[in-house]
Design brief:
The structure holds 2 protein chains of 2 kinds.
Chain A lengths: L1 H31 L6 H19 L7 H27 L7 H18 L13 E2 L8 E5 L4 E4 H23 L1 H11 L1 H6 L4 H27 L1 E2 L3 H16 L4 H21 L3 H17 L14
Antiparallel strand pairs in A: 1-4, 2-3
Helix pairs in contact in A: 1-5, 1-8, 1-9, 1-10, 2-3, 2-4, 2-8, 2-9, 3-8, 5-6, 6-8, 9-10, 9-11, 10-11
Chain B lengths: L3 H24 L2 H12 L24 E8 L6 H20 L7 E8 L4 H13 L5 E3 L4 H14 L3 E3 L14 E3 L4 H15 L4 E7 L3 H16 L3 E8 L7 H9 L4 E3 L4 H13 L6 E3 L7 H6 L7 E4 L8 H14 L5 H19 L5 H9 L4 E3 L2 E5 L5 E2 L2 E6 L4 E7 L2
Parallel strand pairs in B: 1-2, 1-3, 3-4, 4-5, 6-7, 6-8, 8-9, 9-10
Antiparallel strand pairs in B: 10-14, 11-12, 12-13, 14-15
Helix pairs in contact in B: 3-12, 4-5, 6-7, 12-13
Classes of the chains: A mainly alpha, B alpha/beta.
Chain lengths: 306, 415
Amino acid sequence: MSQLIQHLINGLATGTIYALVALGYTMVYGVLKLINFAHGDVMMVGVYMGYATAYTLGRQQQKTFLGVVAIFLVAMAGCALMGFLIERFAYRPLREKPRLTALITAIGISFALSYGFQLDIGFLPGAAPRAFPEIIVPTEWLILGDRDVVVWNWQVMSLLIAVGLMVGLQWLVFKTRFGRAMRAVSFDHRVAALMGIPTDRVIAVTFMIGSGLAAGAGLLYAIKDTSVSPLMGLYVGLKAFVAAVIGGIGHVPGAVVGALMLGLVEEFVVGYAASTWRDAVAFGILIIVLLVKPGGLFGRVAAEKV
Amino acid sequence: MRRFAPMLLAALAMMVAGCEKKTQPTSTETDTSKQAAQGQGGTAAPATPAPGAPSATPTPPGEANTLLLGVATSLTGGQATFGISTRNGIDMAIKEANAADGVKGKKLEMRVYDDQGKPEEAAQAVTRLITQDKVVIILGDVASSNSLAMAEKAQAAGVPMITPSSTNPSVTEKGDFIFRVCFIDPFQGFVMAKFARENLKFSKVAVLQDNKSAYSIGLTDVFTRKFTEMGGKITGTESYSQGDTDYRAQLTAIKKTQPEAIYVPGYYSEVGVIARQARELGLKVPLLGGDGWDSEKLYELGGTAIQGSYFSNHYSPDNPEARIQKFVADYKAAYGSVPDALAALAYDAAKVAIDALKKAPDTSGKAIRDAIAQTKDFPGIAGAITLDEKRNAVKPAVVLKVGDGKTEYVTTVSP
């Protein structure tokens, strides 16, 4: 029993990270119908920005509350800027081209970032994995029995942040003027432009929000698993993408539910079967969902989706 | 949405293809990947090329009063630190031999070619050493895949070759002119089983193996078999894949079996994280492992969690034996760093080669080969070397305990 509960907690913690990354995929897809495969690598860059900030602030200041906030803000702002640049120079020129062109460019950017960061020149970190500094003092938040079940403060924290961001995004999309503009662009960006909506600006801001989210997710991931490397984005990004598709890509709560589900399934597969099965099961679920319900669990085959 | 599905599958296929391409180089050759990873870490006691270090003085080939030893190893590229350590170790052995009047009245020289850590460059370097420089013996390389490429050429030309530190069993299977002075990978599984059972008196050990690495699987197989034969019990075997960062599911499953230790025969980059997560889940037992742990990165990634764990290795610079301490002191004086296992093994390989040159009646390939094959109880820095009929060194391994930012010598385990 205690083993089951521990697996449940571990799975939720993994799923939470997937959820935060999946939100970025879903946002960008919702507005632009573009699968931004570079999203996971933007996350990786965010982690290294956080890493650099943590070391710039010094080991002592990192653990203060303000230090942590500063690390998150710098990384998220840095990634938002990067998201803007990627959108401006890689995707915008291709906007009127067939959708596959942008998709291939996205994969290109993904590889450029993940392999570029393996170089060891100048500020680039090199290929070796690094230990992310303990910017949050890990505290056991709940212990059951003889340490049969352990819950840590950062696990609770990430879950709260993921749920909070999901609610925030729902509010942004459905309750604000900007959200209405996003939905209009999503519906048809040419017509939206004719109606006086600054399409380019809406898309750019959406990219920046998505990239900022990725950086936040990356930092939580780095706090959780401590080891960071330039290839981490490919893997997490792919899993989050699967989660977003399972939930119904373009659907904000769907991304979160799909991600939590995927995290739990992976955890149970590894815990009770073997790690070899993990990816097979994850992608198997994706295929089944696509066959049975091509729009994903929450997806509607409707025009209006953000 | 319907139009979206095929596009999605196409994209997925591309991603998966991309990912596979990326993982291949790290999972193909066990030994190489280990060394590549360490090389990228820039760790393993980077031996700074000191001034006055060997820069293969050009000697006219075939000059009457010198014997030329050929070295092909990686002085640049991802494994550069290994190649530099290797070159330094060989250089030291040659200088010592020359100080003691050389071999057969002749001075020894070495000719070093950089293979950039690439098998094709290694093969070319060996061809040059054999046909152009007419070396009497070849020393190198560290990475098994390079040594395999070299072994083919050396065997075909009938020039004996000794690899200091390629541990993949297939290297010496290339032919009867190929030797090694290190133990082969499966031996370490036996070493840890014996150490866990006899020294630590453990009876229940769990295994966490990297099922993408032949190195890890080989070590696990031998460990499991030997540990069970010695009366121990394997409480459970879990696996992970190279590059994972979350091992909590496996560790939670292991925790339930209440082992006294966990055998993790992986590479330092994963082991450090595994240690942290084990402690986090309340698993306080020590981890056990092999030479894939030997990197300074282990202390960074593992933090305090890895302290108190044990791994098997080729040698320990802390070994109190006077011979080893003299080697460490001499090496430090010459190259400014503590010699790592690679430097020690290279020194041993050169010593074995020089010894064979002294014993051989003439300097033909065949004569030298036969002399090397008779190496028995040769006092190397990384243990006494006896070559078996498969031309592998049968020698003890050391067990090291991970301390605060460094290792402590625990014991030596003989085959």
